[in-house]
Design brief:
Strand order of the largest sheet: 3-2-1-4-5
Oligomer: single chain
Coiled coil: 197-224
CATH architecture of the largest domain: 2-Layer Sandwich
Number of strands: 5
CATH class of the largest domain: Alpha Beta
Radius of gyration: 24 Å
Order of helices and strands: HHHEEEEHHEHHH
Distance between the termini: 63 Å
Number of helices: 8
CATH topology of the largest domain: Nonspecific Lipid-transfer Protein, Chain A
Structural class: alpha+beta
Shape: elongated
Pfam family, one: SCP2
CATH superfamily of the largest domain: SCP2 sterol-binding domain
Protein name: Putative lipid carrier protein
Domain SCP2: 84-142
Keywords: Coiled coil
Largest sheet: 5 strands, mixed
Length: 226
């Protein structure tokens, strides 16, 4: 839910479109899902929360920029929580020690340790604010936890885990295809604008060269008349 000044620009993706569709849904209807998710994570990976005690179990604002809401994650050792926060909420009232902002897919990949967090932070695909020591501790904790969001969430379905897995695989293929289609659409839409920007940049460069040449001529004439 980050504004342009606070985080990366949300990419055109299925997540962004799904987020727009989910905007009218009250947070209280979605909250039980995330209560179950953080409980499952605590059961499967208690070491993550044990390690966070070294930095006093901080609270984090997790901000997927392509969704209309964010999350406050409390890393309490025995009672962690993951609370949905609507876009209109004043972040100063959340009492978090740090914020991590970026597209949802990248945040999940970072949680699973499948991507280089340093490279992402350097490229500004992810933005970190606040207590960097707390963020570093969280990153180190999840890096060694072997987290698999897909498999961890499947355990919530119990005996229905297998059909849920099949449905998730189908949804994943649709998601990947839709992502490729949106990338093509985005490139086709932005291509004319990019050409205009390139033409303007070339014109500006030409004008700068002309101005530089004129300045040199003025200096020469001034030197001759001195």
């Amino acid at each position: 839910m980050a504004s342009l000044s606070k985080g990366p620009i949300a990419p055109l993706s299925p997540v962004l479109l799904a987020g727009l569709a989910a905007r009218p849904i009250p947070a209280k209807l979605l909250q039980p899902i995330f209560n179950a998710a953080i409980k499952q994570m605590h059961q499967q990976h208690p070491g993550v929360f044990d390690r966070m005690t070294s930095v006093n179990s901080p609270r984090f604002l997790i901000d997927p920029v392509d969704l209309p809401f964010s999350f406050v994650m409390d890393t309490h050792q025995t009672a962690p929580s993951l609370e949905i926060v609507q876009a209109f909420k004043d972040e100063q009232e959340l009492y978090t020690q740090a914020a991590i902002r970026g597209p949802l897919v990248l945040l999940i990949e970072l949680l699973e340790g499948r991507i280089d967090g340093d490279a992402l932070f350097f490229s500004r695909d992810l933005v970190v604010e606040g207590d960097t020591e707390a963020v570093l501790a969280l990153r180190n904790a999840v890096d060694g936890a072997d987290i698999d969001v897909h498999n961890d969430l499947l355990r919530l379905f119990g005996n229905f885990a297998k059909p849920a897995d099949m449905a998730a695989q189908v949804a994943g293929k649709i998601f990947q295809r839709f992502t490729k289609d949106l990338n093509v659409l985005s490139q086709a839409t932005l291509a004319p604008l990019q050409r205009k920007c390139d033409a303007q940049a070339a014109s500006i460069e030409e004008l700068e060269e002309t101005v530089t040449t004129l300045k040199k001529q003025v200096r020469r004439r001034a030197g001759k008349t001195a």
